[in-house]
Amino acid sequence: MKETLYKALESIALGFSEGNVSIDMLEKACENYKVKTNFDDGYEYQILVSKSLFDQLNNQEIDEELMKSIMPGQTKNIDGVMYIWSPTKVGSQMTYAWHVFQKTKSGHSVGGGSGLTQKEIDEKTKMINEMFPKDLSTLKVIKAAGGSTGAQIVEDVNGNQYVMKKGTNGRNTSNEHVKLEYLSNQLYDVLGVTVPNYELYDDKGTAVLLSRFIPNARRANSYDAKDGKEMSKHFLIDCLLNNWDVYQNDNCLVAPGGKLYRVDNGGALDLSAHARKKQWDGDINASFISMKQFNPDVAKHLSDADILEQIKAIRAKKDYIVSFLKESNEFSYATVIEQRIDNLKDIEADIQRRAAIKNHTAAPRHLKSSKDMYRVLDKLDQKTIWDNADGKGAREKVFATRKGEGHALLADIAKMRGFDARPRVVTDDEYWKIVAENNKKGMNTQWFRGLKEDKTRGITRQFVIDSLLYDDKCFFGTEAAYGDGIYAHLNDGTGNKDSQKGNYTNSDAYQHAVNYAGHRKNIGAVIKGAMETDSKIIKLEELRKLLAKDVPAGDKKKVAELQKEVDALNEQINKKNDEINNAGKKVIEDAYKKIHYDEDAIATFQAKLDGVDWSKVNAFGERQIPSYKEFVEGYISDVVKANGGTVRQGDEPNMLYFKMPTGDELLITAYQYDGPYSIKQQGQWGSTFNSAVQRFQLWFDRNCNTPAAAARQEALTHVSEIIDKLSKEKYVLITKLDDKKQELHTETTVDPEKSLHNAIYHYATSGYREAYGIYAALKGYDAIEVPNGNGHNHSFYVIVNRSKMVINKDVDMV
Amino acid sequence: MEDENKTILSKVAGGVLKYITATKPSNIIPFKGDFPIIEEYEIKKFNDEVDKTEYLEDASEWMQRVCSQGNKIRLIEESFIQYLEDHGLTEQFENMNVADKSTVLVKFMDKNCLTLDYFRI
């Protein structure tokens, strides 16, 4: 059989030399022969390969025995030039020799040999990524990749898949765009950020970019804490490269195993994702501020220390990056990148700047009389407020906010009542006296309010403090989980409610206020306050009952019953939703279990791989990488077995064959793993990798991750019937709910458009709790007390009458 | 995740409910997506989770997702409103034809490193 296989290999080799077979096919045939015949592709054989090639290059005759030892189709890469052992027919004889591989039959130029003279080949140092196909014509299109640039998923003769982008598709792309994406990938690579392996080709004037397709990857979700934190680790680099889109859509992918990849980097530097020019200059601070503002889920993971650390790391590579760009003849990019790195100092300056705290003296307050403040706002008052409210329509009016005042409707009612007047600001001594007196009377209203700066909007903490204490204009906030108003933590915690000058900071309420003030990162403040003793405070539940009784019209008993039915239907629909969501999850878990796909084992392997620096050497230049035993016999074997594969020993020591239930077998020898040519580099400037391990990764993708993705897809197809059934049931419930709501609506005849009162009732009872703050102010209450809000063990105040706040002038900076 | 990097849920939730329940989240930014992000019958579920959870990062995946989407809409809209105000265009913008509106919007986008992808929710 061995002879038969060898003859077949020779025919393929001859076909290649005659231009009828591609190099990829020949390489594959050579590889297959080695596997099927248990060929020892180890150290000894490689020495023969090297010797024969060097002999030829040195114009020495190759020993005949040596010639017989080399496999047809054997390739060797020296100084960026690919050589292949292939035959030419001389008379009736086949004569093998090393031939330079430069161009394919169809004229595709590739790698280091492309378009070069022999002299240039001899001098060239760029390395070819040997994991990529040499001949684009051998690629098979699998499907469109999606997106607006016409990218496709393609597959090579070995079953490896890639995303292919061509420069002249005409749809939102160009040669310049494709080459720019290649450059962006190189820059990310140089800066140590993970992108899928890539290679650029020149296909008769069309730039073609191939990027390794990551099977069974999922989109990174910035709102997920783990994903968001991972994305933030290279935030400054994303700003440096002007990659505005990087956190949008699926431009960040998480591979099985958990590694985060940045993909689709064609929207970096000076081109948008649709190949249009965009702003590109040295002002990195502007990019930083905007990207931080509009990607808060990612930016929130960055402390000032993190930002400074990332800046330091970029600066350390400045010369390297600029040299790389210049060597690549990208001089204009080199200039701007250099400027952007130099201007990182502007970001540093912002971080290092802190507002000074000044002492203020409050001017006299102007308060309305109690009679005026708490008078009943009649229909005419309410009509005035409603007719003049910001926005068109009830919804806009209820939710409108106004610059400097926050919730607009509340602000208007507050102005009418005089609730917007300044608080009473007292000295530290006065404050503690007031608190002690209140406590004696059993009237604990001590509260703490945490505030912090918002750099993205240019708001310092001093500004926020001044706004509450001294500004005649009252800001009621724009975020309201329990009611529009000014929020404060009431010091009634069930854990600790210490309330005196020496111990108040121990209290639960104070501790939580510190959290709201930014967790002691010196960006916030805690304000100490209390309510005036004659404040009208109502508990939230009582306010709800009041509103429920205050139904604009209709049979109250019937309304209560209908409301109950509506709530019950809501509950059922939510449960149905959960069933629908969980149906998909379960079938995927079952499908993975069936094919022994173990995501945890893959994550463990990825973690081990991430921990290895393949370029590490000791002082003597000796490699410091994990041994073959540790990595191949250990980690690789473990992940293969965990995923249902087998590992068998070869005939010689340090030879292992790996096989998954379906697919081809993979051989990794110690020589391949740790031989002289095992450690390679992605281009002259790029990251270092182990070629045997990379071969394993590609093989694992083909034989494990790709089948898993297919199993997942199939499972989801089957589950669609179950989901359809559940969705139909849900639809029935929704129809019932709509009918009930219609009945309720008819019964209560609440048209929110008609009046302020109707609008408050409608939105408050529909779950928009902001409306309760407006209702409290309308009814003349100074504050709402919310018990155990937000999962805390103390209450909140939602204050709608600022004039009833008593505030300690002495603010705690935290 | 360290507490100090966590987001207080009520602060985010309070500002986004009106956006995530709207069939058209904004009159001035052409957001694209499946709106409303949550249905009316899900408001109770939303509020219940706010009541019992302190930090967004400890909330359910559903909650994190809808808050993230709502916050994105809110940030962009508020920023554009500020932009219009800074350029004295607040009143004019409403009466502009769509071509002029889009010019103003694109200038705002360029100034703030925004692309159309940011409008996809």
What does this structure look like?
The complex is a heterodimer of chains A (814) and B (121). In chain A, β5 (152-155) and β6 form a beta hairpin. In chain A, α23 runs antiparallel to α27 (691-748). In chain A, the strands form seven sheets. In chain A, strands 14, 15, 16, 17, 18, 24, 25, 26 and 27 form a nine-stranded mixed beta sheet that branches. Chain A has a five-stranded antiparallel beta sheet with strand order 4-5-6-8-7, with helices on one face. Chain A has a three-stranded antiparallel beta sheet with strand order 1-2-3, with helices on both faces. The model of chain A is unreliable at 103-116, 121-128 and 353-359 (pLDDT under 50). With 814 residues, chain A is α+β, with helices and mostly antiparallel strands. Chain A starts with a helix and ends with a strand. Chain A has 29 helices and 27 strands. By secondary structure, chain B is mostly helical. In chain B, α1 (9-20) runs antiparallel to α2 and α1 (9-20) crosses α3 (61-86). Chains A and B meet through α9 and α23 of A and α1, α2 and α3 of B.
Topology overview:
The complex is a heterodimer of chains A (814) and B (121).
Chain A: H1 2-17, H2 23-36, H3 43-57, H4 64-69, E1 75-78, E2 81-90, E3 93-101, H5 118-123, E4 140-144, E5 152-155, E6 161-166, H6 175-190, E7 198-203, E8 206-212, E9 218-219, H7 225-232, H8 235-240, E10 252-254, E11 260-262, H9 284-294, H10 296-299, H11 304-316, H12 318-327, H13 331-342, H14 344-352, H15 370-373, H16 379-387, H17 393-399, E12 401-402, E13 406-407, H18 408-417, E14 424-426, H19 428-440, E15 447-452, H20 461-469, E16 486-490, H21 508-516, E17 524-531, E18 537-539, H22 540-549, H23 556-594, H24 599-610, H25 628-642, E19 646-649, E20 655-659, E21 666-669, H26 670-674, E22 679-681, E23 688-690, H27 691-748, H28 756-765, H29 770-778, E24 783-786, E25 796-799, E26 805-808, E27 812-813
Chain B: H1 9-20, H2 43-52, H3 61-86, H4 90-95, H5 98-111
Helix pairs in contact in B: 1-2, 1-3
